[in-house]
Amino acid sequence: MKKQMKTGKQVYIIEHLEPKLFDWCIFEYENISKIVGKENLWFTNLKSKNEAKKLEKFGRVFSESVRDLKLLKDNLKQACVLDPEAKKLLNTKDAKRFKYFIFGGILGDYPPRKRTKEELTKFLKNAIARNIGKEQMSTDNAVFTVARILGGKKFKEMKFKDGASIKINEFESIDLPYRYNLVRGKPFISKKVVNYLKKKKGF
Fold first, then answer.
1. Domain count, the chain
2. How many CB atoms lie within 10 A of CB 176?
3. Potential cystine with 190: which of 31, 61, 65, 176 (Cβ 3.0-4.6 Å)?
4. Cβ 104 vs Cβ 116: under 8 Å
5. What is the CATH number of the domain that holds 48?
């Protein structure tokens, strides 16, 4: 995705929820920065200066969890948590209602363990939760989907692929059980993530 999407004045907040900053996290976060722009992206819950340093070129970094972020505490009514368990679907009108869009930076388990709900939604009581479908997406695909909706694209008009297969060689492939946006007929996956998977043969 070379062309940065028009995101308005929204701030996209990625709460890093993995025990460390894995390489695949960095690749997905870099992809997110390309989608929404460094000036519109915050990373929270970074527990070391080394992790923060790796991400500061992609967005604003915070050691605090989004649950404790002073900049956000008085503005939670303007915040939307993207949670597959939320009852209501995000729609184009939400672009005017919310300023902050909060995502869990999670590789995810299959089947899902509802970590966004358990680690974010239940603690951010004054924020509003929305879903972008019930299927689990990679973090960059979730942000891409939200950015498209806020830009005026209706969810029902979008095309997705459930599951993707990364070919390692003539005989092996890695199957990813997540939902991906289709861009020019192909799943939206960072090239760096694909190369990483091929070298590591999995996460």
1. 1
2. 19
3. 31
4. yes
5. 3.40.1280.30
